[in-house]
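Running this now, will post back.
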Amino acid sequence: MDTDPVLVACAHGTRNPTGRRLIGELALAARALRPGLRTTAAFVDVQPPTVVDVVAGLAGSQTPTVVVPLLLSGGYHVHVDIAGAVGAHPGAVAARPLGPDPRLAAVLADRLREAGAGPDDAVVLAAAGSSDARSVADVEATAAMLQEHRSGPVTTGYGSAAKPSVPDAVAAARAAGAQRVVVAAYLLAPGHFHDKLQGAGADLVTAPLLPDERVAAVLLDRYDAALS
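Update: finished.
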């Protein structure tokens, strides 16, 4: 297995210590599912090391590399930051982001149940947000997958750069007649955006996706697809 490319797990980055731990444990979970796999971490913002530096360092030692975005949709970080980091090095490739994926929708459905959401409650899928239309389309696709698990309506809301905002989406669900509105946090781990969701006006807010072994399985599938 030591001839396989290194999997660079590239996350956004967070100052939240629990968020940092859960992102680190995701890579460990991937290694547990595939013994012998070499992984390392990189980030596009907030914390070092940067994906540019990690990919350049591996390229300097002529180590083949697959960068898997630990991101739930394709936006600027995927199409510019990560694409730019691998574009300068022939031995490096980028996988597609973790979402959308039916397994992530299944995790979201479980988080809703764990939070106490009923099947008929209105759900606002809360994503970080991006001005990139491809990212918004990915979130909308995830909402459609989550809707398959729900009898109540599923809509979307964003933390920044896209509309509607999460508070506006919650208000719209109430205006449409919802008795209860639940925010489904479409986030990998706790951090600044998850903290903000508590003030969005919903009756309940779910926990993020991690920890869950299904996310690690998606991570490995993205790695394999990039090599095929």
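The first strand starts at residue 6 and ends at 11. More later if anyone needs it.
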